[in-house]
């Protein structure tokens, strides 16, 4: 099977997954008690006004019909409108996406810059002091919740030492202020991912370095550095790529709390605000957006295997 046939097959497999996710999201949102029309108009609203708004939003239709209307609109790029501001949800996503994307990519880059070299060195220097220290650091990174770490960073570096901004997204003030405002949230969001990736890189490297072809390369007299660089690292990265793809979805989910803690105007903070206001179209649209990104990342991860190892065939 060639690349394009495999890609088409993966997209076809993603269709029922996407439909299933849409059904779950829509059902869970509508299980939340309360009337959206009542929540928007307030307690002083008349029954006639509430009924008119329910008619406008198709809330009087059966649930399955509401879902079909919403889903077919989504397929056309229409995620609905905010119940409070009447702003299209697609515009809200477009305006908030750069902040979330910048934060997520920064956290990913930070975590990989830490995890890859430390994991490789830890595997090479197995059972040495360097290995033990890196494993303890990884265990701490996994154990500490990112929102708690973010609060500690704000108190220590933002309030007490005043080295970095305690919150906000200051790229409108210039590149340097923007980068400074990004350090604390990116590190707090990426710490857990760095720890997971570090352990995965170490385990994968140790497994690969016990393979016969590594021993054969050493027996041929190749330098240890060349064996590690040309043979071990590339093959060890195949399972690591899987973890990176799966954990990228975790980064997006973690961005919800991180953006809220650091007052960043991203998709995550908008989701929390929409939940507080019971703005169902925004909640549905943002969660579906996160799910779509997650499915897309998994497809990209599958496609990357053959690039890392040409022996792997698309099937």
TrEMBL record:
It comes from the Bacteria. It holds the Pfam family BPD_transp_1. Residues 97-301 form the ABC transmembrane type-1 domain. GO terms for cellular component: plasma membrane. The chain crosses the membrane at residues 12-32, 105-124, 136-163, 175-196, 236-262, 282-308. Keywords: Cell membrane, Membrane, Transmembrane, Transmembrane helix, Transport. It is a multi-pass membrane protein. One of its GO terms (biological process) is transmembrane transport. It is found in: Cell membrane. InterPro entries: BPD_transp_1_N, MetI-like, MetI-like_sf. The keyword Cytoplasm does not apply. Belongs to the binding-protein-dependent transport system permease family. This is Peptide/nickel transport system permease protein. It comes from Thalassobaculum litoreum DSM 18839. The lineage of its organism: Bacteria, Pseudomonadati, Pseudomonadota, Alphaproteobacteria, Rhodospirillales.
């Amino acid at each position: 099977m060639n690349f394009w046939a495999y890609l088409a097959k993966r997209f076809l497999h993603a269709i029922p997954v996407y439909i299933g996710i849409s059904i779950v999201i829509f059902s869970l949102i509508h299980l939340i008690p309360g009337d959206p029309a009542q929540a928007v108009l307030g307690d002083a609203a008349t029954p006639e006004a509430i009924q008119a708004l329910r008619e406008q939003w198709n809330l009087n239709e059966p649930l399955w019909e509401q879902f079909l209307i919403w889903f077919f609109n989504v397929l056309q790029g229409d995620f609905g409108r905010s119940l409070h501001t009447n702003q299209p949800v697609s515009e809200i996503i477009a305006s908030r996406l750069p902040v979330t994307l910048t934060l997520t990519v920064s956290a990913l880059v930070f975590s990989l810059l830490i995890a890859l070299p430390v994991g490789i060195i830890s595997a090479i220097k197995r059972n040495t002091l360097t290995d033990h220290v890196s494993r303890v650091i990884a265990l701490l990174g996994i154990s500490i919740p990112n929102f708690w770490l973010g609060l500690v960073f704000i108190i220590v570096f933002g309030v007490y030492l005043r080295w970095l901004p305690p919150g906000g997204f200051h790229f409108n003030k210039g590149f340097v202020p923007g980068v400074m405002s990004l350090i604390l949230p990116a590190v707090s969001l990426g710490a857990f991912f760095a720890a997971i990736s570090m352990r995965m890189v170490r385990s994968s490297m140790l497994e690969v370095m016990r393979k016969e072809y590594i021993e054969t390369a050493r027996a041929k007299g190749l330098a240890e550095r060349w064996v590690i660089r040309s043979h071990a690292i590339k093959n060890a990265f195949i399972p690591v790529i899987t973890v990176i793809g799966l954990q990228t979805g975790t980064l997006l989910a973690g961005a919800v709390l991180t953006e809220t803690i650091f007052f960043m105007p991203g998709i995550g903070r908008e989701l929390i605000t929409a939940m507080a206001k019971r703005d169902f179209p925004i909640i549905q649209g943002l969660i579906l957006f996160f799910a779509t990104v997650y499915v897309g990342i998994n497809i990209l991860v599958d496609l990357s295997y053959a690039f890392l190892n040409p022996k792997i065939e698309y099937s």
